[in-house]
Design a protein that fits this description.
Radius of gyration: 30 Å
Number of strands: 11
CATH superfamily of the largest domain: Arf Nucleotide-binding Site Opener,domain 2
Largest sheet: 9 strands, antiparallel
Oligomer: single chain
Number of helices: 13
Number of domains: 3
Strand content: 5-15%
Length: 396
């Protein structure tokens, strides 16, 4: 009974009586030294609860950034303003950097303001462009969607020029050169690229981007040497675990696939993400049975006498007998190359077939960097032409 009383008092934050020895003489009063203060349980449990909610919020963010942020706001762990959310993302403890990149790249007005606050937390003063890019690209993982990349690199270029006002004549110059550096990094350090770009080629690639003029040769040489000597480090979230790749797929669902050598139909769970089509035997599998990179492929509706609602993935130069570059796990667990000149796939309904075709077509894109750079270079050229026309008009 005494223990119950002591526990009850502790729960209510009142002083707890010290245990009385069996042979002690009871007294009617206690001095302050005879009492131990037991704090309210709330002062102990609330921080534990908040820590648990924060861990849950980070887990939710890594699976679905919007839901994770909303959960943290609802539990009063974040304020609903861009500065607080940006600081949370910039600190990044326990956050998947792919999820950070996807969230920062969203076109929602609030996300754009968060991106602005996020880049303002970055300090680029007295850093050359490669050093600033190393810092920036380590704080998240650059998404694959062209519009997201454009918004994020635009924000980076603006911030870099704010911190280093006398380096470039415009943010467009910084933007184009940043992409040139990223592409140079890929070309120099990707083992699949056999012909490595030279300094001369890098210089030629960046002619006329400084408001129509050329950048200093020494600047370009220093940037080139920096990338050649040390490639960018790309954030890795989960080592070799592919699970995070499938958190936010573009599309997923059950489809039937026609075999390559043995022409039988097998039901597989398909996931479309990161410009690849993955298929699994079961939805609970962590490793895919096969991977089909969508680069340079086409998709179309297809008729099949044995299956309805079919579509087909194929190479444009299919007539040459080339097989699609893909891989799969064999029955004995070995990873082998695929044996398809085309992939015939059947959806459960016509509507689902049309949606899959639409989603796959949206994923079959060329490297967005080149299109973004070409657009920005055209903008610089147009500015130069406009200035020349204005000058000619003023001289008449």
């Amino acid at each position: 009974m005494q223990r119950l009383v002591a526990t009850s008092k502790a729960l209510n934050g009142t002083p707890c009586e010290q245990p009385i020895a069996p042979n002690a003489v009871p007294t009617n009063s206690h001095t302050t030294s005879d009492q131990i203060y037991c704090p309210p349980v709330s002062t102990v449990l609330v921080p534990l609860l908040k820590n648990k909610q924060m861990a849950m919020g980070k887990k939710k963010f890594n699976m679905d950034p919007k839901k994770g942020i909303e959960y943290l706001i609802e539990n009063k762990l974040l304020c609903r303003n861009e500065e607080d959310i940006a600081k949370f993302l910039y600190k990044g403890e326990g956050l998947n950097k792919t999820a950070i990149g996807d969230y920062l790249g969203e076109r929602d007005p609030m996300n754009i303001r968060i991106l602005q606050s996020f880049v303002e937390l970055q300090e680029f003063s007295d850093l050359n462009l490669v050093q600033a890019l190393r810092q920036f690209l380590w704080s998240f993982r650059l998404p694959g969607e062209a519009q997201k990349i454009d918004r994020m690199m635009e924000a980076f270029a603006t911030r870099y020029c704010q911190c280093n006002q006398n380096v470039f004549q415009s943010t467009d110059t910084c933007y184009v050169l940043s992409f040139a550096i990223i592409m140079l990094n890929t070309s120099l350090h990707n083992p699949n690229v056999k012909e490595k770009p030279t300094l001369e080629r890098f210089n030629k690639m960046n002619r006329g981007i400084n408001n129509g003029g050329d950048l200093p040769q020494e600047l370009l040489r220093n940037l080139y040497e920096s990338i050649r000597n040390e490639p960018f480090k790309i954030p890795e979230d989960d080592g070799n675990d592919l699970t995070h790749t499938f958190f936010n797929p573009d599309r997923e669902g059950w489809l039937s696939k026609l075999g390559g050598r043995v022409k039988t139909w097998k039901r597989r769970w398909f996931i479309l993400t990161d410009n690849c089509l993955y298929y699994f035997e079961y939805t609970t599998d962590k490793e895919p049975r096969g991977i089909i990179p969508l680069e340079n492929l086409y998709v179309k509706e297809a008729d099949d006498s044995r299956k309805s609602n079919c579509f087909e993935l194929y190479c444009p130069n299919k007539s040459k007998g080339n097989t699609i570059k893909a891989c799969k796990t064999d029955t004995d667990g070995r990873v082998v190359e695929g044996n398809h000149q085309s992939y015939r796939i059947s959806a459960p309904s016509r509507e689902e077939r049309d949606e899959w075709i639409k989603s796959i077509r949206a994923s079959i894109t060329r490297d967005p960097f080149y299109d973004l750079v070409a657009t920005r270079k055209k903008k610089i050229t147009n500015k130069k032409l406009a200035k020349m026309e204005d000058h000619s008009a003023s001289c008449e």
